[in-house]
Structure formats: C-alpha cells, structure tokens
Amino acid sequence: MTVANRTLPHGSWPTPITSELVVRAAARLGEVVVDGADVWWAESRPSEGGRTVLVRRAADGPTTDLLPPPWNARTRVHEYGGGAWTVTGGVVWFTGFADQRLYRVEPGSAEPVAVTPEPAIPAGVRHADLRGTPDGTAVIAVRETHAASGASADVVHEVVRVERDGTTTVLVAGPDFVSDPRLSPDGRWLAWLQWQHPDMPWDAAELVVRSPDGRETVVAGGRSGAQPESVVQPTWDADGTLWFLADRTDVWSLYRWQPGGEPELVVDTGSDIAGPQWVFGQSRFALLDDGRVVLAYGRDGGDRLAVRQADGTLLEFDVEYAAFGQLAAAGPAVVCVAGGPASEPVVLRVGVDDGAAEVLRPARDFGLDPAWFSRPEHVTFPTVAGDSGVDEAHALVYPPTNPQVSGPADERPPLLVLVHGGPTSAARAVLDLGVQYWTSRGFAVADVDYRGSTGYGRRYRDALQGRWGIADLDDVVACARFLADAGRVDPARLAIRGGSAGGYTTLAALTFRPGVFAAGASHYGVADLAALAADTHSFESRYLDGLIAPWPAGADVYAERSPIHHTDALDTPLAVFQGDEDRVVPPEQAEMMVAALREKGVPHAYLLFPGEQHGFRKAENIRAALDGELSFYAQVLGFELPAEEGIAPIEVVRG
C-alpha cells in the first residue's frame, strides 16, 4: 500500500531501491546446459565476491549448488570469458578462475579434480567454450596460451581435445582466433569458427568443417564473397545437418548445411537473431528432436521467442518476457534465460507444443509493488547521417517512476543517458535495478542504441566503422536533445554515464560536445585511444583498426579523437570509477584523465577499486560506485540525498 503522494525535487525522492537492494542476493545468470533430465546453469554472485557457481536442478525438482567457496567457474580467454564449463553424463568440466586450469567433478562428488597441469606462467594456459565429446570421455575446447613476453601478439589460440587424464591433442592451429568447436553427433566431423586480425568475429568469421578424411571446407563467412560475412553458433543436428547463423542478408539469419551441398536460408525474421560474440557459449536457437527449431530474435527494442514448425511457418510464443538467451533443447521443451520489463532474468522452461512456461530459477523477490518499476518505451529519433546514410538511432526511455512521490509541476526531471559498452551491445528491456535505482529517485533514463549497436542489422552496426567518437557522440547528443525538445527532461540537467566503450563515449561527449551535458560518469572508460591500441589484450588488439583507423598508421586520427589530448575543452564535472586489475582498459587510462581534471580545476571524483577487473563484481564495490555516482550528481546538479539511506558523500575535488 502506498502513502499519500508527496512532492519533492527530482533526484531526491526516497526509494526502497537502494544500492543494498541492488546487490542483495543478486546473481547474474550465465549458460544453461541440459544433461539428461537435469538442467544446469551458472550464477555469478556479487555477495560471494563475484564468483560463478554452478547450479543443478534435478528432474524431481530439488536445486543444489556445485563448487563451494572459493571455487569459481570462470575463464579469462579473450578476457571476457564464457563457456567456462559443461556437463556430459553427469560429469562436470570447468575452468577454475584462480589458475585457469581445467577441472572435473564426477557424479555424486563435490570435489574438483585437476585435469590439466599447473602452467609455467600463472594463468598462462586458459580454456573456454567447453563441449563434451559424444562418448563423454573428453572435452573439446578453445585453448589460449600466453607467452613469457606478456605481449598480446604472442598469444596463441587453438582448438584442443582434452582427455580425462589431461592428455591434450591440438585439433586446429594457425588462425589468429578460433571459437565454437563442435563435433558431430557421431564424433567424425568437426566444425569451428575462425577469423583473422584485424577482424572481430562479427566482422568476418568463417565457418570451417573438417570431414572424417581430413578435408576442410569453408561453409560460409569470411571475406571471400561480395561482402564480409559473420557466422555464429554452429550446431549439429542428429542427422548430420549443420545449422548456423550468418548475416549475409544484413541481419543474422538461420541457415543449414549438409556435406556436399550449399548453405540454405531457413529463417529470416528481418531482424538479428544473434548478437556479437564477445563471450563464448551464447545460444539463440535450439534444435528439437522432431525437427522443429526454437529461436529468439529482436524487434522494436525487445525479443520474441518463436518456433519454426516442420512446414516452415514461424509461431511466436505468448510469454511475458522480452529478452531470451542461452536456449537449450529439453525434449519437447526449450530451457533459456529470460527477462522482461517487470522481471529480472530467470531460468525458464517453455513447452513447445502448448507454450506453457515454468520458472525453474526465479528472480529475486524484492517485496515491492510493481508500481515502483519504470517501464521502457522504445523510441527512434533523428540523428546526423554522415557517410553511412543511416540517419536515425534508437533508445529505451524510462520515465521517472515512484508511487509515493512526484516532482514539482514546474520542474522537468534530469536525464541520465546510458551508453552501453561493446560498442556492439544493445539496450535490453529487462528489469534492471541499476536503472530503477535512478528512475525511482526522479531521473529519466535513456538507454541509447547508438549506431554500431546490435539488433538492427549489419548496415546499422557498420555505421560506426571508422566513426567511433563521431557517430556515437552524434547519437547520444541527438537523443538528449530529442527528449529535451519534447519537454520530457530538463535541458539544463542532462548527465551521461557509461562503462568500457560506453565510458569512452561519455568522456568524448563531455570533451568534444561541450555544453550539452551538465555532468558525467566514466566507469573504466577509455581516455587515450592510442594507449588502448598499443596496450590491450589479444582479442581486441586490432579492434580499433576498424572503428578508428589502422594503427599506428592512423596515429593522428587516434590523437584527434582521444579525450585525453583535448582536455582544454573539458569543463564538465566528471566522476571516474576504475578497477585496479583491469587488463582491457588499464587504470592508467583513468588516472591520466583524473590528473588532467585536477590540473584544470574541474570538479571531479575518483574511486579505484582493488581486486576488480573490467567491470565490478564485488557487492561492496557495486554499491560504492552507485551511491558515489548519485552523491556526485547531487552535489553537481543541486539536490539532496534521501537522509534515511545514510549515503556518505563522495569527495568532489574542485581544484
């Protein structure tokens, strides 16, 4: 029950959605594996230091954890990980985060047994994208080996087979990168993806198949055709057909291939089925035993879940969720991770015949009336076309929402523009307390799908090529002005925040578009593009060749678009949050920016979190970053913090 409505300035509204609630019993759900009648999934838990636990739900319903503390099933391959574990016949294989060795847990046991030896270099041999062999005696994996030099150019990526006793056979070597090694059900055919510098997998990844006699065939993808093509998620069917997703029609669509034939387009929804392969182990479709295919695809800012029937028709399920991932077949059903505007991600089973949905792993029970949750609106707004010809961009816009408080009639709310990372990620219409933390306090929030985002096809994604630091800035500025011109937000209180690539766009917007935003927050953002190009991990070491210009030939372009070289134009208050073990964007990037702010006397705050890498996983640090950012905006934009939360003001350095 709500109390009588009160009127308070935006930003100062009391709310039960505190930083403590954001992390309380929180868990980020990862891959789903169906093993016989059991369903397994991964949970990354901030309350346990961010470690990833494996959870088993038995056929008769009980749910149990595997891997007691301090075990952590997480891989550092490509630094972003994914595919760190698998289950075959009840045997669990996983990569231990501490040393990156492969471990095995037998059925009925809780004690991991080391499979691979201790590497000569700490965490120097890493495994990801694990898949059990059809006979259950080994796993196929991507192996990433680091050299004593520590140089990204010396990192080697291979496909390997690892036996139960640790004996390892190299199956694929030579390409700069490999992923998705998949054995056919009879174990005789091997499929995998590969790509070469400077491409990223969403630029031009080849699907290669090796036959039993050793012949290799490039089935699809790469740069040999009229235009580059990206292939993702190869999956063998029981009859030896290979299914995959490719973007040769502009969007990632579903294809199938049989040896000796040509790829056949099976499903083209007109929108992307897949997303960019930043992490291993993603799955946006599942093959059922009866020949039907369940798939998820985006449309109008949300996902649809549908089944392709045997006659080729596509039938959408009527479920209350708007985002789906990690699809896995479970007999006549599909199990997946699903979320929606009123629900955090859950593990969901959907019956394909009747559409009946059963939640296997529920979301947290906040004990809150749904009236506290702001619902997003998908908006499309005009932007500067540039060379790409794409002249519009998109966002999910959340209005201020609090059933107990409203703002003064003559006051429009402040706007917080969210800039996602990647920059190929996308806004998702899933309940996120990290967003509701702001909307319940009186902020409007715009989660922007600037050009380069996934979900709108390759042409939209490629519109950022060569224009990072230009097109994304045009879009975040256009979004803020679009909402201000519509009278929905206060044009004098526009703020912008982002992490990683989103942190770069935040810093660049404050530097190269002065006067638009009144404040900003960079979470492990890039300040010096040249430093990133010269000192980052193998996976992204040539990424900027496409987004900016080839390095080092394009050094002038890097300097031109790096905020650190243009701080003379930076006079907007800025909060900076950084992990001290970040290998993707080293802390030196943040500290260069902070030093420049200090020298100029621009109001700023800086929090460095020990033991954190690229993204914050520990509950206490997630809380400190949220509350610190709120305190920063309160001091800069001029509103009071709710006294009952006891938020300690962040130190704002003003000179």
Features of the shown structure:
655 residues, alpha+beta, Neuraminidase, Rossmann fold, 3 domains, eight-stranded mixed sheet, four-stranded antiparallel sheet, 10 helices, 38 strands, 15% helix, 33% strand, globular
What does it look like?
- This protein has 655 residues and is α+β, with helices and mostly antiparallel strands.
- The chain has three domains: 257 residues, Neuraminidase (6 Propeller); 82 residues; 278 residues, Alpha/Beta hydrolase fold, catalytic domain (Rossmann fold), CATH 3.40.50.1820.
- Helices cover 15% and strands 33% of the residues.
- The chain is built from ten helices and 38 strands.
- It has an eight-stranded mixed sheet with strand order 30-31-34-33-35-36-37-38, sandwiched between helices. Strands 2-3-4-5 form a four-stranded antiparallel sheet, with no helix packed on it. The protein has a four-stranded antiparallel sheet with strand order 6-7-8-9, with no helix packed on it.
- α4 crosses α5.
- The mean pLDDT is 95.
